[in-house]
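Bench notes, afternoon.
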Amino acid sequence: MTAQNIISVFNLATETDRNEGAGWYGSALTFAYDLHKRYGVGIHTVAGVISALSPRNRWERNKQDAESMIKVFSAGGDFADLMELKVCTFSSGKTKAAKILTKNIDGVDAILEILKGPKLQEFFCCIVSINDEVCIDGHAYSIWIGDRVALADVPSIGVKLRRTIKEDYRQAARTLKVKPHVVQAVTWVCWRRLHGV
């Protein structure tokens, strides 16, 4: 359970894994910017909606769900209208997305307050390039411990453990001379390929 486990997975990454991982959050921001331009919703709001809808949601469906909610909102839909939409994540995530849209906010702090959960906040920060954030999910945990753990069996990652994992990702990033979110994204892409998830 060290930075070395993270570096080991990074070193298993193919050129394709590295390219996809290095561009992952940039692509997510480009997608958010596209929705921002098409629907006139603030860029941070869009990223907040994407993040809120992300738990246990495949990326392609996450994007569809975000666009559906933003489209309904931009056409005059209210909180109740948004809550009637079908999305492929937990109802708490849909509620957070609806709040972000209907409270008409685009400030980072206000969006982070609605997102609350650390993984959601980390994902949001990585998309909008805030600080040297690292998004710690079940795959990141598995990479860190050096063993595949089914997502349903990943233990609750409390504040202290999360801080330790993030620091190890940052240490790996310093060793590899890349940004921490890139290390996380490249290892995530590689890990999913290696384990067929």
